[in-house]
Amino acid sequence: MTAARPRLTYSELRVVGCERVTPRMRRVTLAGDGLAGFTPVAPDQQVKLFFARDGGVPEVPDPPAGLDDVAGWYQRYLAMPDERRPWMRTYSIRRHRPAAREVDVDFVLHGDGAHSGPAARWAAAARPGDVVGLYGPSVSHLRTPGRHDWKLFAGDETALPAIGAWLETLGPHERAVVVAEVAGPEEEQPLESAADVTVLWSHRGGSPAGRSSLLADAVRSLAFPGGEPFAWVAGEASVVRTVRRHLVNERGLDRRAVAFAGYWRVQLTHDDAPTADELADHAEEAAAG
């Protein structure tokens, strides 16, 4: 029997704390009574965040009445005048503290201006008292683990919040391997877990994010532990596609054992339409069931 989906909720939250995780990642703690109805759905759960263009309180249409109203709600959002419609971006929940009605969200910052969108700019300047809208949560992928012996996590720095959250849910008898691409050693961060976890860091150096084969090469060269893996891959969309194809076509993993999510695109913004490759990926993912 399929469990009922938790009801998505919308909340206006305030910043109550900020800290630097690494030089290019900032953690923002959001709090509010609206989080009393926040029901976790997966270790890699995501939310939609809304940022007012004038730096004030975001104006958002009334939340969907149910899952059947999501498309209609999105059309109402798009119909808002440009100057009033808040920016909407998708982010992973790094940590949820239900008793305090708080969530942590980690933002990758782009000090050089490359790929620096409204969410990164907001996060870089965020201060206690700033207001953001939150709608969610939802899972970031269409795959959940079946029977497996160990987990493989692969991604760039944008995937680290979800990877960190997932590792913290693993028990002492579980095993995981993390392959993570970051700019340099200063961007490595502690990843805590009760499980047996091996973390392999790859450093881009001067190569631009999303434009190297570093992550794919690291996964290709990885000596897999024995047993059947479940793989979770996230980051720049084209890199994720390359890693997924390697796992399925060269390593022989069942497509149902590979969860993937393109968090960002090197040549396109969040507001640009999906590419043909992305639409094909989603169709294949949904068809595999």
TrEMBL record:
What superkingdom heads the lineage? Bacteria
Identify the Gene3D superfamilies for this entry: Nucleotide-binding domain of ferredoxin-NADP reductase (FNR) module, Translation factors
Q: Where is the FAD-binding FR-type domain?
A: 8-144
Q: What span is annotated as the signal peptide, if there is one?
A: none
The GO molecular function terms of this record are:
oxidoreductase activity
InterPro entries linked: FAD-bd_FR_type, FNR_nucleotide-bd, Riboflavin_synthase-like_b-brl, SIP_FAD-bd, SIP_fam, SIP_rossman_dom
Q: Name one Pfam family in it.
A: FAD_binding_9
Instruction: Show the SUPFAM superfamilies listed in the entry.
Output: Riboflavin synthase domain-like (SSF63380)
Q: Which PANTHER family match?
A: FERRIC REDUCTASE, NADPH-DEPENDENT, NADPH-DEPENDENT FERRIC-CHELATE REDUCTASE
Q: What is this protein called?
A: NADPH-dependent ferric siderophore reductase, contains FAD-binding and SIP domains
What is the scientific name of the source organism?
Answer: Jiangella alba
Organism lineage? Bacteria, Bacillati, Actinomycetota, Actinomycetes, Jiangellales
